[in-house]
Each structure stands twice: as structure tokens, then as C-alpha cells.
């Protein structure tokens, strides 16, 4: 974590950090990073949230590093919190402390996934909400589009709903109802392109993919497993014989490109969208480069004021709903 924050400090030399945790260990690690040490405060945390802690247990640990970091965001002492700890506990703590923004029923976990296109794709929800209604999915689409405009500098991100088919009649009532609302929301800064299937996630023909947390988490874990499978198969194939090893040497530049494209550290940093504050989840197995990327995500969202953008778009949804409701009113004689 310290090495990753140090890398982020070189990338964003204007950032200041508060490091919560074991004070002795943190200060010892900072000895190797004088540039970061000069820009950091260290706050000792008496406890830690374990990976096995249930959200209810974690919330009661007020003196944990995770709880103290989120409290700093709530009080305004910090602009964002970045954690590589227990995802469920982090979400529960952040939701209780920061609350959801006006117009947002539930926060969503969003992350970037690699594609064959010019940009990554932002996908949400990835596990914060296992069951979602049409209203939730519409809100996720609006929040994901706001994130996409910041991350990829797009005016009208292309948005699709993850479904079992691309035909209008496919999917659950919730997905079809959400699609109908998004098709009518032509004043929002997004372009709704209908449905997409799981095998099209990485094609690069959309900027935001929206789904419930159960489907999103399964899709994410499947994609991660497939990436590991491909790299392991290639490694095994290229070491199976002398001829294969020679082939590897010839194709080494292409293999390095593939490894870079599939490296999860280059896409690390999932965001809890819809809260009154910025909270970024780093993968627990991320290396220093991955942690630095998570900090970069937090810094970019702060610089571009993601909460204000989402609030403005949510107001647009409310205005749209009010207009449609007014059109349905009939004069009473």
C-alpha cells in the first residue's frame, strides 16, 4: 500500500495523504519513500477489519483504519478514501457514514474492464446490490455515464443493459422497464443503445454496461478467470518444447502487449458511486502499480467533482419523471 501511494504521489505531486493503520509499521515503510513522508500524516488505528468480518461486526469497529478513513471523508478532512480491505464492510461503512446522494436509492460498485476498443468499459453494479428494480438500474446508468464522461472524456457515453439477449422482449421485467425509461430519457447526457450480452462485454462497442450486482459480480469473476486461463494456457504451451520456446521468443513483444492488456493492476480501483463522498476499493491482491492506479482514480474523481455531476444528472431524471407525470394528467370536469 505504501509503495503504491508513493507511486501515486509522483504522478500527482499536489496530493496530500493521511495514512491510517499501524503507526509503527507505516512510519517504518515511509523511511523508503521520503517524498511521500513529507506529504503524509500518520494516524494510528487500534483495530483492523478482517476479511472474514461481517458488515455488522465491521461497522462497530470505530477505531479501525477503514472506519477512520471513511470518517475523515465525512468530516471533510479528506476528499476521498482508498481501501484494499473487506469489500462488504467498506460498502456498509461508507453507506452508513456518508449516506446516499439525493435521488439515489442505492450506491453501486463500478469498475473499468479492458476491451478491444479505444477505451475501457465501465461496468456496474459489481456486487453491492444483488437484487435491483428498474429504478435502481436507471440510476446506475446515470451514475455510470457520469463516471464515463470523466474517465474517458466523452460527451454522451454509450450505455447498454446486460441481458440474456439483444431483442427487446428478452430479459426480466425490471430490465425491460429500465430500458423503456432510458429510451425516453433523451435529454440526459448519455446514449442508450439497448441490450448487450456477456460475450460482448469486451468488444469495445459500449462505454457503460449496467446490471444488478449478482449478474455483474458473476460476469466480473468469469472475465478474471478467463484472463488467467488464457495466460496460463499460453505459458504452458510456450514451455512445452524447444520449438515452442523459440516461438515464444519470436512472439515475445505480442505476449508483453497481451500481458499488459490483461493485467488487472492496470484497471484497479472500483468506485462506490452514489454516495456523498468518494470511496475507492482497491483489489486486495493489487501490487504497488495497482494501488497507485486506485489512488489515481480517486484523484481524478475529486478533480472532476463526480458527486456534483451525478447530482445534476439525477435532477435531470427527476425533471423528466415530473414532465411525463404532468403529460398523463387529465382535466377533471
What is the straight-line distance between the termini? 69 Å
In N-to-C order, the SSE pattern is: HEHHEHHEHEEHEHEEHHHEEHH
Q: Count helical runs.
A: 13
CATH superfamily of the domain at 101-324: Isopropylmalate Dehydrogenase
Description of the molecule:
With 333 residues, the chain is α/β, with parallel strands linked by helices. The chain has a domain at 101-324: Isopropylmalate Dehydrogenase, CATH 3.40.718. The protein is built from 13 helices and ten strands. The chain has helices at 2-11, 23-30, 34-37, 55-59, 65-75, 87-98, 134-152, 173-184, 213-238, 242-250, 252-262, 288-303, 306-328; strands spanning 17-21, 40-44, 80-83, 108-113, 121-124, 158-162, 191-196, 208-210, 270-273, 278-281. A hairpin with a 4-residue loop joins β9 (270-273) and β10.
In short:
By secondary structure, the protein is α/β, with parallel strands linked by helices. It has helices at 2-11, 23-30, 34-37, 55-59, 65-75, 87-98, 134-152, 173-184, 213-238, 242-250, 252-262, 288-303, 306-328, and strands at residues 17-21, 40-44, 80-83, 108-113, 121-124, 158-162, 191-196, 208-210, 270-273, 278-281. The longest helix is centred in the last third of the chain and has 26 residues, at 213-238.
Observed structural traits:
single chain, alpha/beta, two-stranded parallel sheet, 13 helices, Isopropylmalate Dehydrogenase, 333 residues
Q: What layout of secondary structure does this protein have?
A:
Blueprint: H1 2-11, E1 17-21, H2 23-30, H3 34-37, E2 40-44, H4 55-59, H5 65-75, E3 80-83, H6 87-98, E4 108-113, E5 121-124, H7 134-152, E6 158-162, H8 173-184, E7 191-196, E8 208-210, H9 213-238, H10 242-250, H11 252-262, E9 270-273, E10 278-281, H12 288-303, H13 306-328
Parallel strand pairs: 1-2, 3-10, 5-8, 6-7, 6-8
Antiparallel strand pairs: 4-5, 4-9, 9-10
Helix pairs in contact: 1-12, 5-6, 7-8, 7-13
Amino acid at each position: 500500500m505504501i509503495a503504491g501511494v508513493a507511486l501515486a504521489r509522483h504522478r500527482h505531486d499536489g496530493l496530500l495523504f493521511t495514512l491510517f493503520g499501524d503507526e509503527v509499521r507505516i512510519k517504518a515503510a515511509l523511511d523508503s519513500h521520503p517524498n511521500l513522508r513529507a506529504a503524509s500524516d500518520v494516524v494510528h488505528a487500534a483495530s483492523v477489519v478482517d476479511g472474514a468480518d461481517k458488515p455488522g461486526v465491521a461497522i462497530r469497529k470505530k477505531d479501525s483504519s477503514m472506519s477512520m478513513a471513511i470518517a475523515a471523508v465525512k468530516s471533510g478532512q479528506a476528499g476521498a478514501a482508498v481501501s484494499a480491505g473487506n469489500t462488504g464492510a467498506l460498502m456498509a461503512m461508507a453507506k452508513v457514514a456518508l449516506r446516499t446522494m439525493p435521488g439515489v436509492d442505492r450506491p453501486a460498485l463500478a469498475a473499468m474492464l479492458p476491451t478491444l476498443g479505444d477505451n475501457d468499459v465501465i461496468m456496474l453494479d459489481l456486487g453491492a446490490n444483488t437484487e435491483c428494480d428498474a429504478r435502481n438500474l436507471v440510476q446506475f446508468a446515470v451514475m455510470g455515464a457520469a463516471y464515463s464522461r470523466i474517465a474517458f472524456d466523452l460527451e454522451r457515453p454509450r450505455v447498454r443493459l446486460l441481458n440474456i439477449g439483444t431483442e427487446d422482449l428478452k430479459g426480466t421485467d425490471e430490465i425491460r422497464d429500465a430500458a423503456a425509461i432510458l429510451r425516453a430519457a433523451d435529454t440526459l447526457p448519455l446514449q442508450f443503445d439497448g441490450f448487450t450480452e456477456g460475450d460482448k462485454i469486451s468488444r469495445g462497442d459500449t462505454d457503460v454496461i449496467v446490471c444488478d450486482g449478482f449478474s455483474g459480480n458473476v460476469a466480473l469473476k468469469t472475465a478474471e478467470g478467463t484472463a488467467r486461463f488464457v495466460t496460463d494456457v499460453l505459458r504452458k504451451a510456450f514451455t512445452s518444447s524447444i520449438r515452442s520456446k523459440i516461438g515464444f521468443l519470436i512472439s515475445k513483444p505480442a505476449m508483453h502487449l497481451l500481458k499488459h492488456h490483461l493485467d488487472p493492476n492496470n484497471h484497479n480501483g472500483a468506485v462506490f458511486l452514489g454516495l456523498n463522498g468518494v470511496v475507492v476499493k482497491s483489489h486486495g491482491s493489487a501490487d504497488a502499480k495497482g494501488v497507485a492506479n486506485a489512488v489515481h482514480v480517486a484523484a481524478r474523481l475529486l478533480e472532476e467533482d463526480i458527486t456534483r455531476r451525478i447530482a445534476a444528472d439525477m435532477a435531470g431524471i427527476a425533471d423528466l419523471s415530473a414532465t411525463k407525470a404532468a403529460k398523463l394528467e387529465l382535466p377533471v370536469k
